[in-house]
Amino acid sequence: MINEGYKALLKGKSIIRELSEYATERGKEIGYENVFDYSLGNPSVPCAPEFTDELVKLLKEEDPVYVHGYSPSLGITSVRERVAESLNKRFNMNYKTEHIFMTSGAAGALAHALRCVTKPGDEVLTFAPFFPEYYQYVNQTGANLKIVSASTKDFQINFDAFEEKLSENVAAVLINTPNNPSGAVYSTETIKTLADILYKKQKEYGHDIFIISDEPYREILFDGVDAPYVSAYYDNSLSCYSFSKSLSLPGERIGYIAVNPKCRDAEILSVMFGQISRGIGHNCPASSIQLAVSKVLDKTSDLSVYETNMNIIYDELVKLNFEVVKPGGTFYIFPKALEDDANAFCMKAKKYDLILVPSDNFGCPGYFRMAYCIDTEKVLRSLPVLEKFVKEEYGVTP
Amino acid sequence: MINEGYKALLKGKSIIRELSEYATERGKEIGYENVFDYSLGNPSVPCAPEFTDELVKLLKEEDPVYVHGYSPSLGITSVRERVAESLNKRFNMNYKTEHIFMTSGAAGALAHALRCVTKPGDEVLTFAPFFPEYYQYVNQTGANLKIVSASTKDFQINFDAFEEKLSENVAAVLINTPNNPSGAVYSTETIKTLADILYKKQKEYGHDIFIISDEPYREILFDGVDAPYVSAYYDNSLSCYSFSKSLSLPGERIGYIAVNPKCRDAEILSVMFGQISRGIGHNCPASSIQLAVSKVLDKTSDLSVYETNMNIIYDELVKLNFEVVKPGGTFYIFPKALEDDANAFCMKAKKYDLILVPSDNFGCPGYFRMAYCIDTEKVLRSLPVLEKFVKEEYGVTP
Question: Using the beta-carbon criterion (under 8 Å), do A278 and B137 form an inter-chain contact?
Fold first, then answer.
């Protein structure tokens, strides 16, 4: 008997994917180089060459039974050990091998973290604007995602709205910094205030509240930005990481959960993740990819293009009088649309082959997202198109 | 708040894993070459060299943004297309690209298939002896696994016991042929009878009953064995495959679900799998592994060692008067223990550094499993040890 619940999900198609598919189709008509496709957050730079070298070396020099053999269900031990060492060195933490659980990217990490610290019926809070897939990640566990409205002046946290939404039913708070879609990076003050409130509420409610920190953009930070390591400020925290963006390996599905050594039951959480895996058929990232990534943990792809693009787009938006917060990281920017209805705004842009994503699904209506993980040359060519669009549709001139 | 349900699972450690860990520890004392470790079903032969060649070629010659880029959520289209073509050619089926969904091995395939065709509270039937992880795969979806007792004379299906267990609550039947742990391969007659009963019961109950066919050992077949392709005999069937055993890539976590084109809603099931993925954080096997495997779909590792080992062990067991069914495939054999309590039997064997797995967790007490995916040389050296064990403990001589 086909599961009707999953069948019903088929109706809710992702707007991002729809726009991306439109851009691809339109590209077939006019040449993809003429479609200014800011829809998809897909890294545009090649993976770190050291990764390729290490993987080729493994394939050519090591015993294939080892390279392609079963990974223990928590990840290959030597890989977990290296991840712990790298995090300790970079963020002055105290992770041991037992605190690291290897996952299929950040999605796999969130799937395990959420199941581990919630039960069906619990609430998970997140802050607008947020990645729309959070609804699927949370609600398919049986917990309920609740949204705290945005602080649109800076895309830090709206703490008044947060305290209003907090209740005894809240088991976890899901944060994402650097943030998709706003590009904002939570400041040390923001993280400290969040931690203070949660410590107070844990005591008041008499139960743990976990921070689940979704950190795939951790390595894409722009000049001079204050970017605290979340787990350093709150004990009950689980860092969910992916190498998709830092090493440009999105298809290889590799990441991890780092369990704060000070969190409740820290020594058994990874083993619990392993149990969760048995039911969701996860069974670790590919063994050869684990081994190769473990050799290049402190490398990244050349990520500089993202900051270059950001500065070009930000300056242009400011020139055109858009209301926009300057991103501190990621490859996203999140300006206010020129009319209240962001969908209408983006539909009009589409006529100019300018593909912008309306913000409604990010929980923050009236804005739009540009994913500028594209060639700088194309960004530059898109500027006159943007100018033409806002002039013709809204009478805006620089 | 830590999920108490998953925490409780920590108590139930796998007997197979415990024995395997014991064998490793014991190996540190006396040399692993002196431990006759028949515990773990881990392929002992290297991967097909063509796979390594294709992967190295991709890494060296293709654009890394393509090789490591996001896979569409149902799998890379060209890979799905090739899988469909290969299955059509080999099994005279009519799969299209849309019927193939790429997964993280058979575990990933089962996780999606089970969620798609059951809802919490439904029953899933499987046949003893069965892979103990089925409990996790099924019960963590909210459905309930029910066991049909074994047909110990041949390890085909006990149809009387099956018909007794069938009820309106049964949404799916989970089968595994070639079978872990028995090594039996269901005959055409068995599959036809199973299909006939299910067609009749579908009509009687007025709802679909799916066959979920777990087929990781499909390529490990011994001389002269009748090995029907399950989906050719029943419309509502989902074939769950893994390349772990055929290509010796267990750690690379790659497999697929092939949806029978004639099954209910065949055209939307893969899209439903994609929706299920969003909640369980699956997001496809690694892109580079998908691409490389798609080039070697009709290759296998050199699997001949398994049949060589099977014949040696089977002849020895017969010589020692064990009650044993000759395997038709896999790298397992499942003889009857020499006392009713298989645990006691295996504990005694352990004293001789002979690591055998008792059958209780396979739903068929009184037997034991030997996984003979080890070097033939070691199999031969284990024979005098086996003889010594049964002579000293049970007075059995050839």
Answer: yes
ipTM: 0.95
Tell me, yes or no, if A171 comes closer than 8 A to chain B by beta carbon.
yes
Preferred mutation among B275, B290, B291, B301 to probe A, highest tally of A CBs within 10 A:
B275
Distance between B176 CA and the closest CA of chain A, angstroms:
17
The sign one gets for the Cα dihedral B221, B87, B241, B373 is positive
Tell me whether A270 touches chain B (CB under 8 Å): no
Asked if residue B71 has pLDDT above 80, the reply is yes
Cis peptide before B358 (omega within 30 of 0): no
Query: Strands A332-333 and A368-371, how do they pair?
Result: antiparallel
Residues 325-384 of A with CB under 8 A from B: none
**Closest Cα partner for B73 from B312, B281, B382?**
B281
- Cβ–Cβ contact A206 with B under 8 A: no
Question: Rounded to an integer, what distance in angstroms lies between the CA atom of residue B389 and that of residue B398?
Answer: 12
Residue B317 vs residues B156, B322, B336: alpha-carbon distances, Å = 20, 5, 10
Q: Which of B331, B163, B160 is closest to B245 using CA atoms?
A: B331
Specify the pTM. Answer: 0.96
B163-167: which pairs have CB atoms within 8 A and are 24 or more residues apart? B163/B197, B165/B125, B166/B125, B166/B197, B166/B201, B167/B123
Q: Where are the alpha helices (DSSP H) in A129-252?
A: 134-139, 159-165, 188-205
> Which is nearest to A182 in space by CA: A53, A355, A357?
A357
List CB contacts (< 8 A) between B251 and chain A.
Answer: 67-71, 284, 286-288
Closest A-chain CA to B63: A46
Q: What's the pLDDT tens digit per position in A177-232?
A: 999 999 999 999 999 999 999 999 999 999 999 999 999 999 999 999 999 999 99
The residue of chain B with its CA nearest to that of A249 is B68
Chain B CB contacts of A55 below 8 Å? 59
Q: What is the pLDDT of residues A87-141, one digit of tens each?
A: 999 999 999 999 999 999 999 999 999 999 999 999 999 999 999 999 999 998 9
